Known about the structure:
Number of strands: 6
Number of domains: 1
Order of helices and strands: EEEEEHHEH
Helix content: 25-40%
Distance between the termini: 16 Å
Amino acid sequence: MLIERKEFVEESGKIGYVESVFESGNVLKTTYFPESQRLYIAFNRGHTYSYGNISQDMYNEFESNESQGIFFQKRINNNSRYPFRKEFTLYPTEVTLLKEIITKKRAENDNNE
């Protein structure tokens, strides 16, 4: 489930990239670059991979899906259309910070219901 989404817009008005945080059993955070169609996924343990050829429509489906982990497993993972590579691993403090954001947003949503 999408928890937080930020668009970073270039001077030209085009979206440079999108960062999103998810409450998911598998996916923690994504960064999507529409121009290069590259999606970076940071998983819950901090391992971050990038996937190529991810169209804007595919990313929108991923982001709006009820379960990003299931969508990833069924549509992106092990699909030769989306070449991937391991990029880096988040620091433990970064993972903790992202999980704190999720907990805070969940509490805010619960209080607003």
